[in-house]
Amino acid sequence: MYVNGNLAARNENASRDFISHAHPESKTVVGRFAGGSSNHFDLEGRVSMLSFWETGGAETLTEIAKRTKVKSVDDEDHVVKATNRAALDKRAIQRISNQGLAVREPSLFYTFENDIDSSRDGMHHESQTILHELMSGKDGKIEIELSDGMPVNQRQAFIPLGGNRYSEYKDGTYVAPKLGATERRELEEVARERATMVKDAMKHAWKGYRKYAFGKDELLPLSNGGQDNWGGMGTTLVDSLSTLWIMGMEAEFREAKDWVRDNLDFGQVRGGVSVFETTIRNLGGLLSAYDLSGDKVFLRKADDLGMRLQKAFKSRSGIPYGEVELFDGGGAYNTGWHSNYAVLSEIGTLQLEFRYLARATGKSEYATDVMRALDELLKLNAESGLYPTFISNNKETTTFGNQDISIGAMGDSFYEYLLKIWLQGGKKETKYRRRYDESVNGIIDKLIHMSRPNYLTYVAEMKRDRVIHKMDHLSCFLGGMLALGAYTHPDGLQSQQAQRQLKTGKQLAYTCYQMYARSKSGLSPEFVTFDGTNDDFKKGRSRFYILRPETVETFYILYQLTKDPVYREWSWEIFQAIEEHCKTDAGYAAIHDVDTMKQDNRMESFFLAETLKYLFLIFDDTNDIDLLNTHVFNTEAHPLKTW
User: Fold this and answer.
1) Which of 123, 327, 475, 480 has CB 3.0 to 4.6 Å from 117, enough for a Cys bridge?
2) How far is CA 616 from the centre of its chain?
3) Each residue of 428-478: pLDDT tens digit?
4) How far apart are CA 584 and CA 590, in angstroms?
5) In sequence order, what are the residues at sequence separation of 6 or more whose Cβ sits closer than 8 angstroms to the Cβ of residue 244?
């Protein structure tokens, strides 16, 4: 209860009797009546439900009046002050966040329609029947129209607030102050509301997929159809299984499982499919669904798929071919545009899935093939632990096929799996951790640079020993990888090497946040270039956004390890931008240009498998996934238990 604009009482003390005895001089009273026969006011409610009683002192409380009359400027000041203070109520903030805002110290203002004079010169205001309540948070505004005491909420469009905010995070050394118990509790309430909203996004996307493309590889979110562009393996359905389970979408999970059991037949797939994509999306999706649910329907299908993929390892060198025909009698071969070579990331991003499959089925050959290929690759003498993107696999002897180094396209997840193989095996296979640390040192020493004028940290590429100052969105996974490697470092988190890795990971996370925050839409382009100008970076030729997950993946890992709430805030900004610009009637669409916001008729399966999963997990603390002790994510965000 607020008397003359100041907090006077809470809960059981906020009674009419309290006003009569303690504040007979009261001129304005603001509170929320509990209703029924109660003599109390409930101050824990939503700000929009606050009631303003006609001015004139305590005697006016004998009747609960509508919030309709403000008779003087002083009275208005009282009401505004009271509602501003009430705006800091934790439940109010929770409710506001549920409507799409991230609120820090919100301010609330009343505007009075039909004012006789708004110059604040002491003239009175006429009685009003409609008030407008405007709540401002750091990420937007909500206007609530109160008509006859009933709020009608309208969420305004999300408008990015621009880059260069949170600059204290730029150099990777800032440590957020510890929160008190009350602050933590309030933030968790907000996080739960946000997790619900991310789950609602998944429900929306799944509903459209189920209606227009069930069993197809992808939904076409603009034309309301489906396409089989991954061989006709129900890729979106299979890739979504672990997300459905983690979000508790039980009915949808069961229906998807029935489709897998009754309709998924890899022997009917015609044409060649990518060994890499099929392994991380389809095999990984099936194995994670089995790991989470224990249902052997998924393991049987995974075993069948793994057996069909094995023919890819029948090259002369044991380095796998890039494409395979899954049908009986089908062959395997390199992809046409690099017919004599395998791709680094495709060689080194099969091990988690096939090792898990070997352990689950007891068929050791699954693990033998993938680890032989990796060990053959690691025999090559890569300078500073940096491996070229092409590897020859058409000869008995394995050799490098070019001199290009990338932590983005064609290189990225090779380095990720060096760390995760070690984690998956219970941190016992130390040679892979050593190779990982060697590669990380090479990345930091050779590829990490800083922009001008604001000294943003970025990871560059190399072509024939020439540095290319270009950073893919794909490279944004690196911040999370470095943080995970630091927290699991054999010498401990406080060791010099671990701290170096963690600092670089945090620096890269901030740069990736800027790639979103500085665009007109709040969405990142496919890559940016750093050319030494006064803009730090510029959008590259590929200005599209295809619902990629790498940045929120890094935010998720950093939040889980550090518990710094800033990573939740940055993730929330990205989610709001996705909701604003990508949502369609049927699902979510890629964006052709992050400045024009024109939509493309495409929704990649990884949006459901990765982007929405990571966004949900950032805000949900009720799941059993433990990055440091019990689980490892494959590069498609499918969690698998370690051993």
Assistant:
1) 123
2) 7
3) 999 999 999 999 999 999 999 999 999 999 999 999 989 999 999 999 999
4) 10
5) 202, 206, 252, 253, 256
Q: Which residue has the tokens 């897998």?
A: 260
Answer yes or no: 636 catalytic: no
In sequence order, which residues have a C-beta less than 8 Å from that of residue 50 and are 6 or more positions away?
A: 30, 31, 32, 67, 82, 83, 86
Backbone angles phi, psi at 640, to 5 degrees: -130, 140
Q: Which of 106, 101, 72 is nearest to 89 (CA)?
A: 106
DSSP alpha helix (H) spans, 65-180:
73-86, 90-98
> Are β-strands 639-641 and 631-633 bridged in parallel, bridged antiparallel, or unpaired?
antiparallel
Q: Which residues are paired to 3 by β-bridges?
A: 6, 29
- One-letter amino acid at 575 equals F
- Of the CA atoms within 13 Å of residue 131, those in its CB half-sphere come to 28
Instruction: Read off the pLDDT of residues 334-350 as tens digits, 9 standing for 90 and up.
Output: 998 888 899 999 999 99
Separation CA 38–CA 80 (nearest Å): 26
Q: What kind and span of H or E run contains 433?
A: helix 430-442
- Three-state DSSP at 13 gives helix
Query: CA-CA distance, 325 to 331, in Å (whole number)?
Result: 5
Going along the chain from its start, the domains and CATH numbers come out as: 2-155 (no CATH), 187-447+472-500+549-585+606-641 (1.50.10.10)
Q: What is the mean pLDDT of residues 242-246?
A: 98
- Report the distance separating Cα 17 and Cα 14, nearest Å: 8
Strands 29-31 and 470-472: unpaired
What is the tens place of the pLDDT at every residue in 481-495? 999 999 999 999 999
The structure tokens 């602050």 sit at 183
Three-class SS of residue 407? coil
Q: Given the structure tokens 């950093």, which residue do they identify?
A: 558
Is the Cβ–Cβ distance between 94 and 193 less than 8 Å?
A: yes
One-letter amino acid for residue 478 of the chain: L
Q: pLDDT of 61-107, one tens digit each?
A: 333 333 334 445 555 555 555 555 544 444 444 444 444 443 333 33
**CA dist 519 to 187, 289, 545, 555, 574, Å?**
27, 36, 11, 19, 11
H runs (alpha helix) in 339-411: 344-347, 351-361, 365-378
- Distance in angstroms (rounded) separating the CA atoms of residues 123 and 180: 45
Contact indicator for 216, 210 with CB cutoff of 8 Å: no
Judge contact between 631 and 573, C-beta under 8 A: no
pTM of the model: 0.80
Query: Rounded CA gap, 358 and 142, in Å?
Result: 53
Q: Which residue has the tokens 């943003």?
A: 456
Q: Is residue 401 within 8 Å of residue 390, measured between CB atoms? A: yes
DSSP state letters, 510-574: HHHHHHHHTSSSS---SEEE--SSTTS-EE-S---B----HHHHHHHHHHHHH--THHHHHHHHH
Tokens of 271: 């044409």
Alpha-carbon span 356 to 530, nearest angstrom? 40
Written as six digits, the tokens of 179 are: 């929160």
DSSP 393: -
Where does 213-249 have alpha helices with state H? 235-246
